[in-house]
Amino acid sequence: MHSTLVRIQNVFGFFTTVAFCTAILVALSVTLTPQDPSAKLELRNVQVVKGRPHYYSSKKEEYAHIKFDLDADFSSLFNWNTKQLFVYILATWPSDTAQTSTPPSQAIIWDTIINSHSQTHPLNPLQLLRAPKKPYKKPNKHNRPAATSTADDPQLGVIHLKNSKPKYQISNINGKLSSQGNVTLEVGWNVQPWVGALTWTLSEGKTFGRWRGIKGGKSKVFKMPALKGKSASQETVIASPGKPKAAEASAVV
């Protein structure tokens, strides 16, 4: 007869083996789900100023303040194993070196995290055991039930940004950005699963099984303007001829 300790060890070993095999199957099963993300990224306005881009900067340098429009659909990246999606916009420009093998300079100007439904509204087992009772209030003209909206919730993973301000200013390693040419903006993402490996951006035109690379998601090549004397906080955007409009950004869904 086996002792109680040996039986506990056998049960625990069998449980961990089953859990490990289940996690592997869940991680591999996401490759069977089709992924077809798309995005449209356009430059709205860019300004280069000289100052301290961060409060901890020790010296003044040139930094860029870039505004953009983004319409993206990442809903196909969400499945049963998606915990959250990290989306970012990357600015890329050539490095100021004579060596052609030197990689280009890159900096993130904006990012956000989109949680899945199971991450935003986790299941609480205690809610199944007890239901809170709401006190009865007699309706009157000062206490009427609010009208409920019948509109559907926005689709998960869909982003609409208009004239959005960047979260981060970008600077160059040599402290100069004015008149820098061949600059592009590109959308990227990172899927963080519940179990399994992280998956990163799949470039346009590339495929991996049923996964397709992003459609669009890259701006036209542009050039940094000359150095301005005013700060980025004083910048205005011309919405129509003769009518300056302050920059605004809509919320992320």
Identify the notable features of this structure and list them briefly.
about 250 residues, alpha+beta, six-stranded mixed β-sheet, four-stranded antiparallel β-sheet, 3 helices, disordered C terminus
Structural class call reads alpha+beta
Major sheet: size, sense and barrel closure?
Answer: 6 strands, mixed
Contiguous runs where pLDDT drops below 50 for at least 5 residues: 145-153, 230-253
Backbone CA Rg: 25 Å
Determine the number of helices (DSSP H or I, runs of at least 4 residues): 3
The overall pLDDT average reads: 78
What would you say this structure looks like, in words?
The protein is of the alpha+beta class. The protein is 14% helix and 34% strand. The chain has helices spanning 4-29, 117-120, 125-129; strands at 38-51, 61-73, 82-93, 105-115, 158-164, 170-171, 184-193, 199-200, 207-208, 211-212, 215-216, 227-228, 237-240, 243-245. The longest helix is centred in the first third of the chain and has 26 residues, at 4-29.
